[in-house]
Amino acid sequence: RKEYVDLYVDYVFNKSVQKPFEDFMQGFLRGCPARNWKMFFPEDLQVLLQGYTTFDWNLLEKNVMYDQYTKLDQTIRSFWTVFHKLSEEKKKMFLVFLSGSDRITGYGLECFRFSIADPQVENPDESCPYASTCSLILFLPR
User: Fold this and answer.
1) pLDDT at 5
2) Where is the catalytic site (predicted)?
3) Which residues are catalytic?
């Protein structure tokens, strides 16, 4: 039985996907030659391709830009007070809401910039926050 299980696992995880993987690898290496990847350590390449998964949230606050707000406005101060009380999982959910991903690209938070803008709606109490993921703008009604 052990031999059967070993052969079955080898088939499912190796042999059955060998041809599609080779085709993928050939196409991938055509666009991104292997010699270009050799300059990276595996950990650095993983960050470059997948992004960072741990963050300095205070740096995120420091790098934000404001449109029709200042960092001293009550709405902004309240936003950051609530944000910093969120769990790590909820903060990552905010990143998904803002950018469409719970990761930051390989450049890290130092280069990650987003804006908080006042959508200037007539009745802010009847408007919800929304985001432009392409532009990295959080529209936060007063």
Assistant:
1) 92
2) 134 (glycyl thioester intermediate)
3) 134
pLDDT single digits (tens) 43-55: 777 777 777 777 8
Domain boundaries, the chain: 1-39, 57-139
Task: Compute the distance between CA of residue 51 and CA of residue 66 in angstroms, rounded to an integer.
Answer: 25
Sheet bearing 65-67, strands edge to edge: 65-67, 115-117, 137-139, 130-132
In degrees rounded to 5, what are phi and psi of residue 59?
-65, -35
> Which residues of the chain carry a pLDDT beneath 70?
106-109
DSSP string, 29-67: HHHS-HHHHTTS-HHHHHHHHH-BS---HHHHHHH-EEE
**Alpha-carbon span 123 to 19, nearest angstrom:** 59
pLDDT at residue 59, as a whole number:
87
Q: Which of 87, 93, 103, 94 is nearest to 55 (CA)?
A: 103
Quote the pLDDT of residue 56. Answer: 83
Structure tokens at 67: 């449109």
**What CATH number should be reported for the domain whose range is 57-139?**
3.30.2410.10
Residues 6 or more apart whose Cβ sits within 8 Å of residue 57: 83, 84, 91
